[in-house]
Amino acid sequence: MTRQEMLYEGKAKRLYRTEDEQVLWVEYKNDATAFNGKKKASLDGKAELNNEITSLIFTVLEERGIPSHFIKRLSATEQLVKAVTIVPLEVVMRNVVAGSLARRLGLEEGTPLKEPIIEFYYKNDTLDDPLVTEDHIALLDVATREECQQLRTMALHINEVLKALFAELGVDLIDGKVEFGRDADGSLLLADEISPDTCRLWDHATGERLDKDLFRRDLGNLQAGYQNILSRLRGAHA
Ligand code: C5P
User: Fold this and answer.
1) What is the CATH number of the domain that holds 24?
2) What are the tens digits of pLDDT across the range 36-68?
3) What positions belong to coiled-coil segments (predicted)?
4) Are 56 and 237 in contact (CB under 8 A)?
5) Residue 177 CA: which ligand 1 atom is closest?
6) Within this chain, do residues 144 and 181 fall inside the same structural domain, yes or no?
7) Which atom of ligand 1 is nearest to the CA of 175?
8) From ligand 1's centre to the CA of 2, what distance in Å?
9) Distance from the CA of 96 to the center of ligand 1, in angstroms?
10) CA 88, 94, 96 angle in degrees (round to 5)?
11) Domain containing residue 19
């Protein structure tokens, strides 16, 4: 398999075609962005950390009955994935109040939720990824109502499996974001990445932040937090 022309460059990854139209080549970047690109930095080693963390997480999810677009890790910063058409929605799963939920509803960060909640955000940089309802999603023709229900069910299941996976490592999954794509048959498949860039991860014992809030809020060294997560994952699953 060889890397061919670049199809897309995002904030954290580049996507390339391969000679197989069903397979794409992903290259992780060292770039860290927050607040829809308003805060930026290049952080040495971040690409390697997220590539390996995402690869390990998708591998464990597959073993636990949750398929994804992930095929295999190719190198320190690259992986192969199944080609899907990304649904332009960020599906956020929450277990504990944090971030925009705390701000939007005036709730205290760190308060556990009685049950997990799911939110949809429309992926659109110009609009700053607004929170949308299922009516908005139907209006925008981004997904059908039936697909919204399916996305919700899939996200709740992924959240339960991820919560257990991190609990085994002594880490609390506070919240996280997943994305889905449609395969050639139109079926929804978990895609993109799952890493400390896309999940809030707090050490269970100390509450130490081990995720992108280290960068967003200048709380400490991002690479040290991500390395901590990777070491625990390797200890249990590599
Ligand atoms: O900012 P907010 O509290 O809404 O983020 C909820 C979760 O979704 C966090 O884990 C955050 O890392 C993730 N997220 C993301 N990409 C975005 C927005 C949020 O990965 N564009």
Assistant:
1) 3.30.200.20
2) 889 999 999 999 999 999 999 999 999 999 999
3) none
4) yes
5) 8
6) yes
7) 10
8) 33
9) 13
10) 155
11) 6-82
